Amino acid sequence: MRNTKPISTIMSTNIITLKKDDELETAELLFKRHKIRHIPVVKNEAIIGMLSYTDLLRISFADAVDETETEIETLVYNMFTIEQVMAKNVITVSSDASIKDVALILAQKEFHALPVVDDDRLVGIVTTTDLINYLLKEL
């Protein structure tokens, strides 16, 4: 297994993003529709935060109410903005960072996704799932 391979070989480049002024309901819809757990928040092409599905669940009853009941969620979502809920001090990596270095960062931190940024522009996202899938192929 080559541990100097760049993260660009396994990162996702089809990135779903949000803007800080988007609605939290929009975020929930994107999480569910695309079956993802992390969405970078951008201003133009620069990352300004990261919203995780866990962040959203902390402030809502998203999975605790019936699918047809949206009143509670809407009320809670109207009390917060994406900017208030997102993580702001986001650690990023460049596309030429090694898979090993990225794995070390994810192993030491309490999050499960890293935005990949080149020249202040979001170019990808890498998750613990991407790393596990890579390891499964290599082993």
From TrEMBL:
Keywords: CBS domain. It comes from the Bacteria. InterPro entries: CBS_dom, CBS_dom_sf, Diverse_CBS-Domain. Residues 11-67, 86-139 form the CBS domain. CDD domains: CBS_pair_AcuB_like (cd04584). Pfam families: CBS. This is Putative signal-transduction protein containing cAMP-binding protein. It comes from Winogradskyella psychrotolerans RS-3.
